[in-house]
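Let us work through a complete example step by step.
Step 1: write down the sequence.
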Amino acid sequence: MPVPIPRQRAIPAVESGQAQAESPCDGPAEQSATDASATAPRTPDTAGNTTDKVENNTAHTNLTLLLIEDDPAGSPIVPDMLDQAGKPIRVRTARNLTEAGRLLTDDVHCILLDLALPAPGRSDTDDELAVLKHVLELAPRHAVLALTASGDAERGAEAVRVGAQDYLFRDELDGRLLSRAIRYAVERKRSESAERRLAEGRLRAQENRRLERGLLPTPLLDGSPLRFAARYRPGRSRALLGGDFYDVVRTPDGTVHAMIGDVCGHGPDEAALGVELRIAWRALTLAGLCGDQLLGTLQQVLEHERADDEIFATLCTVDIAPDGRRAGLCLAGHPSPLLARPDKPARLLPYDNNGPALGLLPGARWPRMQVELGAEWSLMLYTDGLIEGHVGEGRERLGQDGMTEMVRRQIAEGLRGEQLLRTAVNEVRDLNGGELTDDVAVLLLDRVP
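Step 2: predict the structure and record it as tokens.
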């Protein structure tokens, strides 16, 4: 298939077979685009320099037709064609597909193709629409009109089925008919392209929803009085998941286990590793492991699954007793959860016995701390994406203290559950002056007697 060569100059406005050829005696039949630019109006810019005045508004751009026919001089096409705005339609001609590839620039709106033109490397006994298929591959974004002999409607209809926008009979053409056909073909191609993009967008959205349902956890809290809420925002543009992960399950003895973690890095490999760690955590928790034994096994999983020895993950696990009044806390290089109660301001849980992140130290240990929660409380687990955003235009970051003050204020304003998390994440983003570059995961467990 011919490959279009880079354009080194603008194509003249009219390059049809009807244009008068240049001769040494008569001079050029028309002024080239390069020459025309030399005489185009020039206006001074704000610095006092003169610049060419260029019209970039596509609404004022003339339609351009590329005619691909082996005998343009004998074509019945009328050169004086007008678009819907009454402006002349520009015509370029090519005698073969190689020449068409050179003339097929971005400002061409429509292609008029003679179906009798032979396709490269094919004999006359091959597919009679081979040349059309070749052009559709060469110019997938352009409108195409098929030109065929009078009475050959079946071939024209087949051309439309293959991908042309319309077909025309050679001996029935006139300027008005062709002008209308070009406008129709261009608009139909735009409509088809818009519909295709819309369908692709809907399909992609459906696939993303299915992937999200499969990758993000469904909390297993049947029979528990605790309320659950979560927010997730990947740092990578258009990504479904980042390296952050979380999960919540209730074991048969009534204990509620919650976890949140963060794999270093932001790529798809880190996201996949986060999913593997979450699934492993759920399986091990349902099998009865907790605390140091659970984290030690997760470290083995990480060491076997990571793509690089320098990859590590931080983790916070909480196991809440069946009565909901106390919990065990294990931290593996992760920020400590935030506890809010009606009788006391929101505060961070102790993190003095914070163990190392998973994957850093072979044979590491992670102490389990006992925490008193009380009768009514809210426990918020989060990743560092929530606290590492900037505050204003300087280098200052929100930090854990800033986050604590922010959540205290929001709780005092009556925010709870999903609304609290949504407001907190949005405010952190606003303080950062735009989207956060790191992944953010936040989950909230509430106990209301």
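Step 3: interpret the result. The longest strand covers residues 256-263.
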